[in-house]
Design goal:
This protein folds into 2 domains: 140 residues, Penicillin-binding protein 2a (Domain 2), CATH 3.90.1310.10; 318 residues, Beta-lactamase. It has 17 helices and 16 strands. The strands form 5 sheets. Strands 1, 2, 3, 4 and 7 form a 5-stranded mixed beta sheet that branches. A 5-stranded antiparallel beta sheet has the order 9-8-16-15-14, sandwiched between helices. Strands 5-6 form a two-stranded antiparallel ribbon. The chain is elongated and about 170 Å long. About 2% of the residues have low confidence.
Length: 597
Amino acid sequence: MIRTPLRPLARILSARENGENPDTIERENLRLRHEQMRDKARTRAETRLLIMGMAFFVAFSTIGARMGLLAATEPEEPRASAPGAEIIAQRADITDRNGRILATNMLTHALYAHPKEMVEPKRVAKELAAIFPEMKAPDLERRFTDGRSFMWLRRTLSPEQMQMVHDIGDPGLLFGPREMRLYPNGELAAHVLGGASFGAEGVSSAEVIGTAGIEKAMDARLRDPAQAGKPLQLSLDLTIQATVEELLDAGMKMMNAKGAAAVLMDVKTGEIISLASLPAFDPNDRPNPILPPGAEPGDNPLFNRAVQGVYELGSTFKIFAVAQAMELGLVTPTSMVDAKAPMFWGKFKIREFENHNYGPLLAVTDVIAKSSNVGTAHIALMIGGERQQTFLRALGLFDPSPVELIEAPYAKPILPKRWPDITTITVSYGHGIAASPLSLATAYATIANGGVTIKPTLVHRETPEPGIRVMSAEVAAASVAMLRRVVTEGTASMGEVEGYQVAGKTGTAEKPKPSGGYYDDKVVNTFAAIFPANDPKYVLTVTLDEPVETSGSKPRRTAGWTAVPVAAEVIRRVAPLLGLRPQVEATPLDGLTAVRN
């Protein structure tokens, strides 16, 4: 920087020549120099203040924008990051055939801890134990102080529990958001839905996986991102399911049974409108599957009697022998068959219930109406063992039900190891062979829909999968007519429902002992019903485990006294819900009374 001299020589000499004081020149130059320095300092200060102001403006603007962004987002706890695949938490809803929710997701939080960040581990342990009774303060304190840096405390929290943990106020307690499975209807359709639990877990999400029922069987479908959360629509009707379960529970208690099952199926499509098993459970809180020593599988409420229960179904099998014999041209509904009781076959003795004797001859229709063991045995011998097996296999009674439940493939029917003539006889009236109530309903649906097999399903569908014809429409119609006589004149007289023509067959089977043989006072009773008989649309099977009707002078254990009344009440209540209008027969003219005002 070139500075101007305070006493320039040229100006000094010029001033002296003019008689001026040279000191004035110095003072003037000094003043000008100070003014220049002052202006530069002011400019420099103003520039710095401007830069500093702009810096403060940018900083405060950034902070304000960040605070606004945080205020607009959901609150989120700090999380520990860990490598690994992303957890897919979304799971599709499950609805009934009308779109009503059976299973959905609910946002909840898990509780975990960073013990090294805790301020007062002892106090935290004590207060957590007060909130969660299953936690023990000494155990928590030990785990909080053993050097670990992370630990799970609870998989799910209610809003109230979450608030109480918040109130503890320790920075080492953290919450992780996640979705959990919710079944808003509690025990309703519990055995169909099964239940769900957590799979892979992270602090910010958890994988929901099916553990039983259709939740597990259709797990891939429910978790498929390609489905975009589209609900899985079942064939069940929530209203009808609730009605069936209510009536089945009342009937089970009234008949002093230890368990019960019911299946209501559309005979055209194979759709299961209702599937119930009692006792039931709440899938929101699945019980422990472990049974005490000596208990039966059916004693566990998780056991699905309608699908997993494999029982001897007694006389409900008799219509299969008669239908096959008619299809083969061996008999007609009016054919007379040997029914003289008792019947001897080698060392075996075939008797009728309470030692009745319907012989010597009985029409085939009456064999079904009176539920004659001997008459059915003679018809089965006409058919032969090989053809009998082929027919029962075609009806689906030799294989597990293909329904969409994870338990179904493991519920294999119990079949005789050998098939001599005596097996052909006993199988014809439902002894020596065991199947599930669902398999029985499927076989009866084949008769009801005109002789074409159907595939049972719990998923809503408008059209059935094509089946195979196992009997002609004429034979199927004749079989339904025989089953109608069972209700109007035979063993199921309590099954008549006014306005709805009910057809069906009773089955009373003694329960086998684990050690061999049969109990004298324990039975499994079943009523398989078709309605309306003049235009079959639905099949209903009701099965009661160890029922006994005690209103009379002596206990009664037959299906006609136990399963039939329960099934009749179910039909009476659900038929209108299914859209079936009662058909009232016209009163004959000679039954009218004329009156005059």
